[in-house]
């Protein structure tokens, strides 16, 4: 399977994968469960794990709106970092949605994948 996407998307997709790999160890209390923090939030607020991801994404959107309204640059996390985190939360939400609501589709996608669909494919422009 070849990733057939516009070249401008490759940096974003690679960043998505790199961020997931780098941050997942910090956002999980288990080596086996990358989504354990979302589970904790979901239980606390009586929502699904994918809704917990949506909640985090909404916080990022609120931050962007606040920066835009105040017309000042961020003092801590960059706007780019905020968009990267928002992108990751959206993908986490979709992945968890599929895993919870449509596990058969996840298995079908996994079964149709070839060993060539690894992150090294994201490196090319």
Helix coverage percent: 55-70%
Category from helices, strands and their pairing: mainly alpha
What is the element string, with H for helices and E for strands? HHHHH
Distance between the termini: 16 Å
- Biggest pleated sheet: none
Low-confidence stretches: none
Number of domains: 1
Number of helices, counting only DSSP H or I runs of 4 residues or more:
5
Quaternary state of the chains: single chain
Q: What is the 3D form?
A: globular
Mean pLDDT: 83
Record field, number of beta strands: 0
Word description of this protein:
With 125 residues, this protein is mainly α. It has one domain (9-123). The protein is 65% helix and 0% strand. The protein is built from five helices and no strands. Helix 1 (9-24) packs across helix 4. The protein is globular. The mean pLDDT is 83.
Summarize it.
With 125 residues, the chain is mostly helical. It has 5 helices and no strands. It has one domain.
Label this structure with key terms.
125 residues; 0% strand; mainly alpha
How do the strands and helices of this protein lay out in sequence?
Blueprint: H1 9-24, H2 36-45, H3 49-70, H4 79-101, H5 103-112
Helix pairs in contact: 1-4, 2-3, 3-4, 4-5
